[in-house]
Amino acid sequence: MPIKIFFYFMLLVFSTSVSAKPKILVQHQRSAKNLAEIQVTNQTVETLICYVAIDGHKIYFRLQPLQPSQWYKATDTRLNYSNFSTWCDYLYLHPKYKPRKK
Hints:
By secondary structure, the chain is α+β, with helices and mostly antiparallel strands. Helix content is 17%, strand content 36%. The model has no long low-confidence stretch (mean pLDDT 88).
């Protein structure tokens, strides 16, 4: 019985830590020129490193706590929201994207 409880406890601990991702909100819209646009909003109190990929081209940026990014536009009217891809993670986990000190 104690082994079973230990097993379930370990399963609970490791399954929640693996899926810990920053909370972001992704918004899509069409511009006045009918181009698809995307905006990412950071809903955490940590700085994030993110990218928006438009048809395979990645644009990296740092996203400040509780702030939205700028709107990123597609270059062709045939592209829609499914051609965008986003990724965000905590900046302290990716030190190569930290700002360099002068």
